[in-house]
């Protein structure tokens, strides 16, 4: 989907942001932070939310004591040094995987169709883990609709997840869910056309603010981006759709 070019944009975190508890209303919490900080959303803002807080709101917690590793998980645990229970959750959440090096990380194709380090499993201390939302695009749509209702501003939502790359160290940020913004964008220059994973670019831009472990700012707002509207969601651009 072709969009007008973006020549510049601004981005900011919604903070301080309270620590979310399982089952909390994420949209209401965001609205409360907006009110408390005197911030107003504007039409066509893109609200980028870390997947972990979506998982917390949706109660996607698994206690490791309830997980029984099988022989494959035990073998992978010995190779990678990951707890066998976490490895079992990775196996349960994916339909294929490979090791980026002999000792990992584990790059898995999630049953939702995403290729993610550790199948997107996020450790929760020593006793538990957070799974991805059941349907990230549906989560994005629900959050977008609620934010429009709370604020009156016609915004888009992107759910972002930190992820590693098989060819290099470190983590980046990608999109796993979206609502109100097309996941793909086509840019043109002369006779050349290029299809871009646009919501990934948005997530990566927000990732500079969201950061990784311990940042404590799970929501960012990007303002001034030109984008085509769409309800297709991130799943529409996957090679392997669930």
CATH T-level fold name of the largest domain: 60s Ribosomal Protein L30, Chain: A
Largest beta sheet, briefly?
5 strands, mixed
Order of helices and strands: EHEHEHHEEEEEHEEEEHE
CATH level-1 class of the largest domain = Alpha Beta
Unreliable stretches (pLDDT < 50, length at least 5) are: none
What is the general shape?
Answer: globular
Count of DSSP H/I helices: 6
Order of strands, widest sheet: 1-13-2-9-10
Number of strands: 13
Approximately how much helix is present in the residues?
A: 25-40%
Proportion of strand residues: 25-35%
Helices and strands: which structural class?
Answer: alpha+beta
Q: How does CATH name the architecture of the largest domain?
A: 2-Layer Sandwich
Radius of gyration over all CA atoms, rounded: 18 Å
CATH superfamily of the largest domain: CofE-like
A few lines on this structure:
The protein is globular, with a radius of gyration of 18 Å. The protein is an alpha+beta fold and 242 residues long. The protein contains six helices and 13 strands.
